[in-house]
Structure formats: C-alpha cells, structure tokens
Batch of 2 targets.
Target 1
Amino acid sequence: MKINTNKLLMLPGPTIVPPEVLNAMSFPVIGHRSKEFSELFEDTVEKLKKVFITENDTFIITGSGTSAMDMAISNIVSKGDKVLNIITGNFGERFSKIVEAYKGESIKYEVEWGDMADPKRVKELLEENEEIKAVTVVHNETSTGAKNLIEEIGKVVKDFNTLYIVDTVSSLGGDYVNVDKFNIDICVTGSQKCLAAPPGLAGITVSEKAWEVIEKNDKVGFYLDLKTYKKYYEEKRQNPYTPAVNLIYALNVALDLILEEGIENRVKRHERLARATQEAIMAMGLELFAKEKARSITVTSIKYPEGIDDKLREILNKKYNIVVAGGQKHLSGKIFRIGHMGVCGEKEILATISCLELALKELGFEIKESGVERALEVLGK
Ligand code: PLP
C-alpha cells in the first residue's frame, strides 16, 4: 500500500507526531505482566498525572477518547439516574447519548453551536432539578472551535451534591487544565490531540468523591469497569487486559516532551498560534465560526464564504498536501477547521495560511488583505 508521507496534518486530531514519539513505538514488545512493563506503565501514569495536574487516581486505557467518555458514564450511571449534559456541540451531545445508552436520564442544557455555556445557567439547572448525579461538559468543543469555562463551572458544581465530569480530549496539553484546582471528579482525554501521540489511548482521572459513587453504582459493563482497573493498578501497576504496549512507549515520550516544554509555556504557544491563525483568517476577509469570547486556542473553525465549500479542503489536500478538517453534523459543508494543537509551530501555521490564500484565490475568492502578512506580524511580536 502506498502512503503519502508528505502530508501536513493540520487536523484537530490526530495531530503531527514528533519522530522521537513515533520511534518509541519500535521499542521491543514486552510482556504486559512483566516487571519492565509495570515500571513503564507507572512512569507513564505518573507523567500523565502531572499533565492533568492531579493527585487523583489516573488510568490509561486502550481505546480512543470516546472509550474514556463511556467509562466515565458507565461507572456512574444506572437506569433512571439523572445527568446534566452541557451541550455546545457534537461531543457534548455524545455524552448525552452515552447517558441514554446506559438508560440514564439526560437533562440537556443546549447552547447554540459556536458559543459557550453560561455557568449561571448551570447553577439554575442544578437548583431546578433534584438528584442530578453528574454534570458533563466538554472543555474544548472540537466540532465548533469554541471552549467552555470549566474552572467557573467547576466552582458552581462544587456546591452541589453531584459529580463534575469534564472532557479535555482536545485541550489537555494545549489549553490550561488543572483537574484538582477545577474540582473535576472525572476528567477524560485522548492521546491523539494536544498530547501529540498516536491515536489509540485514552486517559481518565477519578476523584475520591467519584469513587464513592462508583462503589455504590450497579455494575454496568465489563471491559471498562473502573473498579477492576483500580484493583490491577494498585496491586500490579498494570491494566486488567492486554494494553497497547507500544503506544504506551510513545505516550511516555510524548509526555516527556510536554513536561520539558512546561505546561504554561505550552499554553502560551497555543495561544500565540491561535491568535496568528485567527487574525490571519479575518484579515483575508473570512469569518470565524466561534463567538469571540468562546474561541478555542487549539482549533479554529471558519465559515465557508459564499460559493465556496469543501472543494477548498480538497485543493489544500491534493495540491498542497495540507490536511484540514470539515464541519461535523449540520456544519458539514458550512465550515472548515484548522487544528493548531500539539507540536504544531510557526512554520506549520505559515504554510497553512499561505496555501489557504492560494487555494482561496484559485476558487475566485477576493482576498481582502494578506493573511500571511498578518500572521507574520502576530508571530513577530
Ligand atoms: N471529545 C472531543 C472534544 C473530541 O474532539 C473527540 C474527537 O475528536 C472526542 C471526544 C472523541 O474522541 P475519539 O474520536 O478519540 O473517540
């Protein structure tokens, strides 16, 4: 099979994986019940805890981000349990679907896509509805390019007898997440976005308060039963089922790179690249999809101008080898999304903006001002 190895991946996941992380996958396969594996696994979990900024129990599971979302809900929710799902896009909606799949009752707080949830409304909904077992929110709604105020929502949720579940799949390692400070009871993430590791692993943190609920919950499911993961980790520093050993090597190196850069520096880099991208897009005369106050620093969503559609992405991909994402659900054909997360840097942003300018011209779009010049200005500051 022929693979084009010359693609610049500007997706909001999976993202560019640095060579040292890819190379780590070629380390020898080792037995997952061996002492070496336990050491590797514990080391990786400890590093992930530092990135989550938590003392809570943390697990690495074989599966994509959705498996950790599923794990969060299936260990908490039994038939008839109420969960408040904050929905600001496709992934917020996914949490509510998972709740319903486990026969829970999803109370939906729906926000217009492209905007963020209002923490005051979360408070009202918690006051209006009794016995809400958990609140879910997506930090960075990858489908819209808008983020939620997870720290502020955490302050609201703390005053209620409910669990706070946060999806940081496209923010951990890019935007600022602090599990302990934000009172997050269960936090989930995926390997293939801001962590800049290959797809296939997910992370989840579990607070003491969450364990109390999990212990009492009717057992639902088998593979993702958190109690089994806890038992194996405590006793052996292992997972109950065969893990993706070589992906753990890769994640370990990817986490080293994050800790070496430092979380604050990493967030600042993401902020700077987001500003350069977003200002360049606006200078060209294109419109951003997410509301200004809610704009993500890891992904930018852009409205297609009149008469332009996914043909733009096709030109970027086929002619310039730059891969950007389209819209999801009702936004398909209406927006496109540029990921600037993980190890993405100035050169990737400048290449993307330059080729976007060329592709737009090819499609007859009249560029207002040079996006490249604008990006250079922002990055040169
Ligand atoms: N949550 C968010 C915010 C995401 O962006 C994604 C994937 O794009 C997911 C959850 C689901 O992750 P996965 O596709 O790895 O299952």
Note: The chain has 13 helices and 15 strands.
Target 2
Amino acid sequence: NQTDDWWKKAVAYQIYPRSFYDSNNDGIGDLNGIREKLPYLKELGIDFIWLNPIYASPNVDNGYDISDYQAIHPDFGTMAEFEQLLAEAHALDIKIIMDLVVNHTSDQHPWFLEARQSKDNPYRDYYLWEDATADQLPNNWQSFFGGPTWTYDETTEQAYFHVFAKEQPDLNWKNPTMRAAIYKMIRWWLNLGIDGFRIDAISHIQKEPWDFEITDNQWAPFMNVSGIDDYMLELKAIFDEYDIVTVGEASGVSSEEAVAWTGNDGYVNMIFELEHCGRIGEPGQQKGSIPHLKDTLTRWQNSLADNGWNALYLENHDTPRSVSVYGDGSEKSAKALATLLLLMKGTPFIYQGQELGMINYPFRSIEEVDGKDTLYAYQALLEEQPELTSEEALTITMNWSRDHSRTPFQWNTEAFGGFSKTTPWLAVNPNFPIINAQYELQQPHSVVNFYKQLITLRKNTDTLIHGTYHLLLKNHPSIYAFTRQSDTETWLIITNLSTRSVTIDLSEELTLNDWQLILTNNQKLSLSHPLTLERFDALVYRKRH
Ligand code: TEU
Ligand code: CA
C-alpha cells in the first residue's frame, strides 16, 4: 500500500558535515560531532538525515569530487566512526541517507588516474574522451561552474568531458563495465545498512551527441537527455531490493516528467526540483520572487497530486538562506516559511540551521569566500563589466552564493558559536549570540520551538501528509495561502510573505464557520472577511467536517 511508505510521513534533515559540529577542534565538522548531536535532532523530531558527501576527496568541490567511494575522508573520521554513527542513529530511530555522486568522480580517483595514462588503458572508456587540440575542443558547450566542458590532455592529445569543474570528469554511463563498478559500490553501502541515497546531479548522466546544436537552453545537451531511463531503471532495480528511500537531484526533469520519475514504478521515491529557487541571483533578482515561488511549487504539487511524491525544501548547501531570500531575516519570517515547508504535501527537508532562522553571512570581501563557482562568477563578472567596483561585483555575486548556507552551525554563545574551539574552515556568522540552538531552545517562542511544533503537528495529522493541496488567492503578490483536505477535515494555511500589512478577502473561497486556529507566529486572529495580516503573519486553521 503506497500510503504506508514510511518516508511519506517522515521529516528529513540535511547535514553539511563540514559545518555541523567539530568534535576534535580542528576547525572542521566531523562524524563524531554529528553523533554527539543526535539527541538534538531527536528532540527536533527528525526521522532521517541526508549527509552531504563524507568520502575521500581532494575537496575541489567540497566532497563532490570523490577519489574513493568506499573510504571516509580523514577530516570527517573513520569507517568505524561512520558505523558507530549509523548504529546510534538507528538506536534513536533516525535513519541516514548518503549522497551518491555518480555523474562524475574526482580527477584523482584511481579510475581516472588510470584512464588518462593512455588511449588503450582499460579504464579509458570509464570517462568521455574525444580528439582535440589545445585550441580546438570537440564543441563549445559550457560547464555549470564556468568555462568549457572539455579539458585538453596533452599526454594523449584528447580532451575529457566534465559538466562541473575540470577536476570532476564525467563518468561514461554508456560503458557497462563502468556501470557494473558503480552498482557494486552502491550495493556495498546498502549492505552496510544505510537507509538510502540522495542522488547527486543524476539528470546529467546522459549526454546528447557532441554535434547537438544548442538553441535556447545552454544546459540542454546534458539535462535529462533521452536514453537516461535505461540507466535509471537499472538503478531502480537495485534500489528495489532494499527497504530504503531514494531522492534524486534532478534539475531539468519537468513537473510532468516527475510523475514517471517518482510515481508508481518510478525510478526514485522523490526528486529535488531546482525550478523554484532558479531565479535567485539573476540580474535584478536579489530577493526571491514570491509569485514565482507560489507558481512553481503549486505546479509541482498539482502535477504529483495523484501519482508521485514531492521532496520539499526552501534551502540547501547550494543556495542562500531562505529567510534572507524570501523573508526579511526576521524570526517571524523564518516561522512563516517554516509553516509553508512543513504543511505542503511532500517530504520536507530542513537544512541545518534553517530551524534556527540562520540568515545569510555578511560577506565584506571576496577573500572570505570559499565556493569555487562563486569565485569563478565573481572573476567573470569583473571581466565582463570592468566598470563595476569590487564591492559592487561582490554584492551581485553574493546574492546567490553557496557560502551563505555553509557557514558553521550556531550551537551556543561561546566562541565560534560553539561549533569548534578553533577558527573554523569558514567564518561563523557574527549574529551567533542571538541566533543559536541553546538560547532558542530555552525561549518558548523561538524559531526552533516553532519548527518543533510544526513537525509534531504534521506527524500526527494524516490530512497534512496525504490530504489534497489547493492554492487560494492564486494571483496575490505576497499572500501564500492553501488548503489541505481529506474526507474528515480541512486545514487552511495562510502566510503573508511581505514586510507590509495586507488585507485579503477570502469570501469567494471559504465560508467562515467552524474554523479553529491551531498555530500562528503572531496574533490570535479568528477567520473573518476581510482579514488583515501583519508582516510575515502565518496562520493555521482546522475545520472538521
Ligand atoms: O549540484 C548539482 C547542481 O546544482 C546541478 O545539477 C544543477 O543542475 C545545475 O547547477 C543547473 O542548475 C550538486 C551538488 O548539490 C553541488 O554541491 C555539487 O557542486 C554538484 O552537484 C557537483 O557534484
Ligand atoms: Ca573536526
């Protein structure tokens, strides 16, 4: 029975291990640090954790460039420590899913070190090589991190293909021997007892022919290209042998196609779409557009209403902080966003620190930045628009930088926010004396306690898990309101995602009787026509039928 899937009732929590908790005070978060903090996650009400990559890696892309899939990076600990973390999490009834990065490896992976030796090396065909010269690459496709998708290799006078950095060569999925090696690795982790995978950049594993002509979308040659289904079905066959949850990061898969990806007999249980956060950082798009957010999330809710399942998120390790993008940095806006995230239909993913209302970092100079793509974009911007001052270029670049979400978790008021006793790898946000877990847990009206309430509410309410979603006030520029409905009850969720007070009229959509206010971040408003909402008000009502 589909409705019994455990992951539909679950609340997930994303941990960026490097920035969660540093147990041995070397400035880098680690596995023992996560293990020490499991009780915190239990108290929050978390059912499963997604761990960003913890494998051996030269860290060109913070662990997304893997040099050994079956080894733990010494920064994070040992395999024994990983197994201890898994065992203790399981004892608390918390599951753990791992990042599965199989679009590419590190250029330091033994397979690639072999492959680049010679054209007839047995590993050569694990990757994508074409004849080239230093000035004549096989085509003009551009990579996500900037620059060509091809890097010329002098030894063999060919170029290899990569959709991310040149240190992340793409695997050749057409090669069955390569696929078998990846599948063996996948089984190895699943046999160890992990609870599933978040599958990185999986929609890029299939590429168009090299002479494919790019028209409107420059990423089209490697975005969910036809033929990918064969590989997804092979992966699915493995996943189906285990009781696990699988979440594909699948940019380029449309909300219509997502039915095939996540519905009955879908390849994975759910996918992360990237459309709703896609516009942040475009020129003139410093703040997230609320109409765009509403439209996109609603399209996905509707598309997967009867078949398929949504993975819900407002931020992750690749985005700025949602409270800075869609909110005004205030606690109140953090709570309004939490209300949306936890009460839509799908499995919510809370990104570490989001439950505290952590906000963007006030970067003052490019020297403070770590993210490779951010540094590249900053340089490119200065080259394209030499009239910009470095401050202006920094401001524009930082609108969407990945570094905002990667600053260390703020545990308490001690030095470095209690993350570490040494200077951390990335600076702690100076607001840690007010935004931190310890302080907030003691304050009944804090952001973290609001999250706890929402998580409990959701987990105890079948209608909030399986009930239908219906958007209200579709064309309103700042009100995000919807209902969740089952045979027995209707829930009404209203948020005002704006710094202004707004008066709305729901008389065409709702009758007034029998609504009970269940949760709010501000005033105890009973439902009326018209209804005035203050800045970032969030209200949750229930009506039993
Ligand atoms: O991100 C992948 C990612 O963002 C692309 O798949 C996306 O489709 C593209 O940028 C177009 O919008 C994942 C990880 O989350 C990220 O941290 C890694 O850097 C990246 O993969 C490479 O492994
Ligand atoms: Ca450490």
Note: Residues 22-24, 26, 28, 30 surround calcium ion (ligand 2) (CB under 6 Å).
